[in-house]
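Feature request, filed as a ticket because there's no other form

It would be nice if the structure record came with a short human-readable summary line next to the tokens. Right now we just get the raw output. Example of a typical job, pasted below so the devs can see what we mean:
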Amino acid sequence: MRQAFFKPFLILSLLMGQSIAMEKSFKTGEFDARKRLEDKEFDIKKVNLNRVPGFETATPPQSNLTADTIGDAVAREVSQNKAAQFVKESSEKRPTFKIDGDTDPLFVSASKVANNPEVTLGVTVHANASGDKKAQ
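Raw output as currently delivered:
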């Protein structure tokens, strides 16, 4: 019985601690942002980027890519990345299908339903004197 009470209590305690830490981090960021907005001489170069959560570097390797070099970078990354290799290989091996909106049974049936929904639903629609339609 004690163990059944302890596990949910432990989980709740851990979540509360995380929530408090996130709230403190948010308030710190909000304060810093407000201070920066009030500052007329704001200079992004003076910002300590290490305070930004998840920040790693201001100059990642991709920042040097241009329209001329991006193709080679993609090819190089695909050759080294297992997930990219899997996607590339599976797309090359997968059979292709041509879907014709005029002959495909799914599209033909959908068009029939859209063009005449009363028949599909099996109801008769009558217009009253004001022009409103009423199903029976």
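Something like this underneath would help us a lot:
The CA atoms of residues 58 and 103 lie 54 Å apart.
The first strand starts at residue 125 and ends at 127.
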